[in-house]
Amino acid sequence: MKGCDASVIISSNATNKAEKDHADNLSLAGDGFDTVIKAKAAVDAVPSCRNKVSCADVLAMATRDVISLAGGPSYAVELGRLDGLVSTAASVGGKLPQPNFNVNQLTSLFASNGLSQTDMIALSAAHTLGFSHCTRFANRIYDFGGRSGAVDPSLNRTYVTQLQAMCPRNVDADVAINMDPVTPRTFDNQYFRNLQLGMGLFTSDQVLHDDARSRPTVDNWAGNSGVFNSAFVAAITRLGRVGAKTSRSQGNIRRDCSTFN
Ligand code: HEM
Ligand SMILES: [Ca+2]
């Protein structure tokens, strides 16, 4: 949890519980890690390229490629990150934003990583793709605020009914649903249109529209995908600098992304 150093790809072993085995990271897709591990191995299979590209850089480029292949913008990835030398589950607590965060909490956590409120709003739109487990938002659709039968009033009522159907009470903890119910496989600004309709899945999504400080940005990007794409590229480029390591005292180039050299 020290930034863009591929520490999240390290596997746990007998003496170390790694970052990816922290509860907040359990949903990270195993096939995503496998893709990075294989791409790095493919680079290293070429003798003239061996030990020159870090896992952290491969991960950043794979992220760019997923966004672009899903219909989003493409962009040059800044390169030269080294791979970190530490990965512990114990380091994760308090470092990740939580789905029940309000705008102040979101803004301050991103600010602690050198990212602006505008960056935070742009990066939240990553939820235009991907899945969430029912447990992460169940409090919004069942007994909201501890009141029996209540639902979060900021949620669209039709959407509540759909969510309750996909995530019945006491549903299996493995069940996950699309975060963007409209265009789940396209990287687009539908995320912001959803927020305008009360269809933000997490409190941390919906507050971006419901808080008057972030709403003008949400409304602007909901209506203008070009402006959103530019803001997203600027923000993810800044995100890619968080905790990047370039000194050999802090990092190296791993041979196998899942294991320290
Ligand atoms: C703004 C604060 C954020 C909060 C509170 C948050 C929270 C969450 C939660 C709770 C999930 C569901 C995990 C699960 O149940 O499986 C999730 C999924 C996801 N988040 Fe975020 N997130 C935030 C920002 C971001 C950012 C900045 C990015 C990337 C730039 C991002 C990318 C994703 C992706 C791609 C998934 C789907 C993973 C999958 O499909 O396997 N999120 N997020
Ligand atoms: Ca989408």
Secondary structure layout plus pairing:
Elements: H1 30-44, H2 55-69, E1 83-84, H3 103-111, H4 117-124, E2 131-133, H5 138-141, H6 157-166, E3 176-178, H7 190-196, H8 203-210, H9 215-223, H10 225-239, E4 251-252
Antiparallel strand pairs: 1-4, 2-3
Helix pairs in contact: 1-2, 4-10, 7-9, 9-10
The chain binds protoporphyrin IX containing FE (HEM) and calcium ion (CA).
What does this structure look like?
By secondary structure, the chain is mainly α. The protein folds into 2 domains: 100 residues, Peroxidase, domain 1 (Orthogonal Bundle); 136 residues, Peroxidase, domain 2 (Orthogonal Bundle). Helix content is 38%, strand content 4%. It has 10 helices and 4 strands; from the N terminus they run ααβααβααβααααβ. The protein has a two-stranded antiparallel sheet. A two-stranded antiparallel ribbon has the order 2-3. Helix 1 packs across helix 2, helix 7 crosses helix 9 and helix 9 packs across helix 10. The radius of gyration is 19 Å and the shape is globular. The model has no long low-confidence stretch (mean pLDDT 97). Bound molecules: protoporphyrin IX containing FE and calcium ion. This is Plant heme peroxidase family profile domain-containing protein. InterPro entries: Haem_peroxidase, Haem_peroxidase_sf, Peroxidase_pln, Peroxidases_heam-ligand_BS, Secretory_peroxidase. Belongs to the peroxidase family. Ascorbate peroxidase subfamily. One of its GO terms (biological process) is hydrogen peroxide catabolic process. Keywords: Calcium, Disulfide bond, Heme, Hydrogen peroxide, Iron, Metal-binding, Oxidoreductase, Peroxidase, Pyrrolidone carboxylic acid.
